[in-house]
Amino acid sequence: MQISRVGGSVRHFSSVRPLFAQNLTEKIVQKYAVGLADGKEVHSGDYVSIRPSHCMSHDNSWPVALKFKGLGAAKVADNRQVVMTLDHDVQNKSEKNLEKYRNIENFAKEQGTDFYPAGRGIGHQIMVEEGYAFPYNLTVASDSHSNTYGGVGCLGTPVVRTDAASIWATGKTWWQIPPVAKVELRGELPAGVTGKDVIVALCGVFNNDEVLNHAIEFVGDGAKHLSVDERLTIANMTTEWGALTGLFPVDDVLVKWYEERLTRLPQPHPRVNRETVDSLKTPLSADGDAYYAKELVLDLSTLSPCVSGPNSVKVSKPLSVLAEQDIKVNKAYLVSCTNSRLSDIEAAANVVKGKKIADGVEFYVAAASSEVQKDAEAAGYWQDIINAGAKPLPAGCGPCIGLGTGLLEAGEVGISATNRNFKGRMGSRDALAYLASPEVVAASAILGRIGFPEEVEGKAVPKTQDLVKNIKANPKPTGASATEAAVSVLPGFPESIEGELVLCDADNINTDAIYPGKYTYQDDVPKEKMAEVCMENYDPEFGKKTKAGDIIVSGFNFGTGSSREQAATCILARGIQLVIAGSFGNIFSRNSINNALLTLEIPALIELLRSQYTSGEPTIRTGLFARWDVKSATVTVRDNNGQEILKEKVGELGESMQEIIVEGGLEKWVSNQLKK
Questions:
Q1: Quick one: fold of 305-458?
Q2: Tell me: the pLDDT tens digits for 145-171?
Q3: CATH 2.60.120.280 corresponds to the domain 496-675
Q4: In this structure, are strands 578-581 and 598-601 parallel, antiparallel, or unpaired?
Q5: CA 550, CA 621: separation in Å to the nearest integer?
Q6: pLDDT 10s digits, 541-597
Q7: Which candidate in 3, 70, 482, 601 could, as Cys together with 649 as Cys, close a disulfide (CB 3.0–4.6 Å)?
Q8: Aconitase A/isopropylmalate dehydratase small subunit swivel domain: which residues (predicted)?
Q9: Which CATH number does 1-46+178-249+285-304 carry?
């Protein structure tokens, strides 16, 4: 495989971008930005108010509704903007869960919003099938895999529950336009290589935050060789790559796909109709001199089947390497919003048809939607998979989010066509989880070990070299320097914050590690319990080693993963006043602001602590103390003798952000604004 990167580090936005030139991301945001001064063009780095085309929520719709009501709002500002789907915990038939589902459905009826019941499908798939996510739209969802919409040329990005409630109440939310990375795809995938292999490879080889918190635009002649299903898979997992969006071009392949959709959807359709499809023939594209913070190039023709893991999306290896290791599997999964569309089910069916699942292996299959399952049944693919011994599940998230039947037990190995294999996400934290394409998952279920589809037929398998040998890496990007001006501190906001540093020495600590998924959809977890389980999937000893008033220091991309706001609120429940990291996942940062948890990015501090503390323990009390002087925007670190060992300039916390923190978070701030 040959991958290279063109261009250097992130630069100061205002000093490098050509005036009046916009990339495609900026042009779409321009369409949906509100309250701009006449003639104002938006660019990366700008904070803007946006009125998204649509806002989707799923099982978290009821918590969003409670927030909405807590704001003092009674009526959704635009009921055509809001979409509610039930997809995460659809196997749960307990009265408590069914009551929540009834509450959501009744609320949707009261507000006149579009609603899709449990069993209809995964929300992201519905958003695409029903045209809510449509080319050149800006559509958001209170779920981290909203990036999926980029597969159909829609700028999709996640928001958190508080943002969703704000959109319901006002039709608007805030967004900082991220730096934009251009990923050029060249050539064509070899036979047996899929869109899943593309994104698994990208996550594995560019695994040092190269696109963290970037918007991605996929360009190049290679894109035209990717099906829409493959584009949706790649866009979906740009989330795992660390990006905020993953936008594919609107080209002849996509227009043809929508032409076919016209024949399947009842007409006239409010979103996918002759007029909207014809409008795609007048393309919107980036200006020729548009600025991109990064440029990467991937030659599709050099790829081979790849597998990520175990227990990390950031580690990928050629399938040929793992196939030689005789890694036995206990469970295989063809589920989720990533790879459960019709082409994925067809690919798996072609592997298992006429075969039987290996003894000791359980193979679970769930379609992305009821429409997909209906099509798969009509084509015979579904029955081929069931005949091989697979266990069907209802259309929904299920084991991908660690809910329902078939979760991994301690000591087991699973291989999945889902998007995440975080430790503990799909079951026991003492299990091993790998990610692969539907073909490889199906083959592994038949073989009883990780292997090639060719092996199922007794054919020879290709040999490939390790991906790492073909990478050209540039230095880690650096941010803009902080200003020297004094910061005004609002009444009620502390002028300084001080505490002992507790080192959590790992990169990519995800939201499942911070707040276990099994509690995510329990809406009545008391604060004391949230404090108790805080970080338990990262380190079961965390609770014994920390106390109120501590400052957590961690590595890069802290808070990556799902959109659960409890990842921030459980830290607050623990009494932690400040989290410092090399960098943060954007969704976690957004949740932190919205819930009044303070965060700072100080890469130099984590590097310093890593050089001094090498015990290998996941949680270490350092005996060092940090003081953040808000007015001077500096952080000083001293040892227990008062000796200064580090002094760093940090970003300024402006009055608008201080106001949100003083109010106790965005929810209370919006409520007060509505009263005014």
A1: Aconitase; domain 3 (3.30.499)
A2: 999 999 999 999 999 888 999 999 989
A3: no
A4: parallel
A5: 9
A6: 999 999 999 999 999 889 988 878 899 999 999 999 899 998 888 778 888 888 999
A7: 482
A8: 482-604
A9: 3.40.1060.10
